[in-house]
Specification:
The structure is a single chain. The chain contains 6 helices and 6 strands; from the N terminus they run αααααβββαβββ. By secondary structure, it is an alpha+beta fold. This is Aspartic peptidase DDI1-type domain-containing protein. Belongs to the DDI1 family.
């Protein structure tokens, strides 16, 4: 039953492929799949039993600092496991890899390849690309806010409007110029 559900759901197959490659390899072999599942259930049961036994042992001497530390660690591990299970239920896509979308565009008439970030609040352009497409003369350095995303970066300035062509569509976009990051 579980095997059929996984086979019928592309997202579930991807999750199994990423998290349990051996189970994924057994999807087309019902007997092997069942064997792996039974083994996992058995291991989970044994793990749960050993954790419960450990917790009971630790609770025999709750004033022992080492026992208190281990009890807190077990509680933390349980909270992490519950949090991960909740994430699996409400946003399973967060456990899969994401393909990046690149498109061919023309910025100020010059062909470029652009990364599409559907969650971005602003359109950024590097100093090198701005120079290559002839837009550095339009950078207004009075606008130098912080760009915040995964990390923070100083914005060198803003190009208030510049032409971009995406396929047959021609539009004007504002850009912010990113300051180069050096390691």
């Amino acid at each position: 039953m579980i095997r059929n559900q996984v086979l019928a759901d592309a997202n579930a197959r991807e999750q199994v492929r990423l998290t349990q490659p051996n189970l994924y390899d057994a999807l087309n072999d019902p007997a092997r799949f069942r064997g792996i599942m039974m083994e996992q259930v058995s291991q989970l049961s044994q793990s749960s039993n050993s954790q419960q036994a450990e917790l009971l042992r630790l609770q025999q001497d709750p004033d022992n600092p080492a026992n208190q530390k281990r009890i807190l660690e077990l509680i933390r591990e349980e909270a992490i496991e519950e949090n991960m299970n909740l994430a699996w239920e409400i946003s399973p896509e967060s456990f899969t890899s994401v393909n990046m979308l690149y498109i061919k565009v023309k910025i100020n008439g010059v062909e470029q390849v652009a990364l599409v970030d559907s969650g971005a609040a602003i359109t950024t352009i590097s100093e090198a690309i701005a120079e290559e497409v002839g837009l550095t003369r339009l950078i207004d350095r009075r606008f130098q806010p912080q760009a915040v995303g995964i990390g923070t970066q100083t914005v060198a300035g803003k190009i208030h409007s510049a032409p971009i062509e995406i396929g047959d569509s021609k539009i004007e976009l504002p850009y912010v110029e990113k300051t180069p990051v050096y390691d």
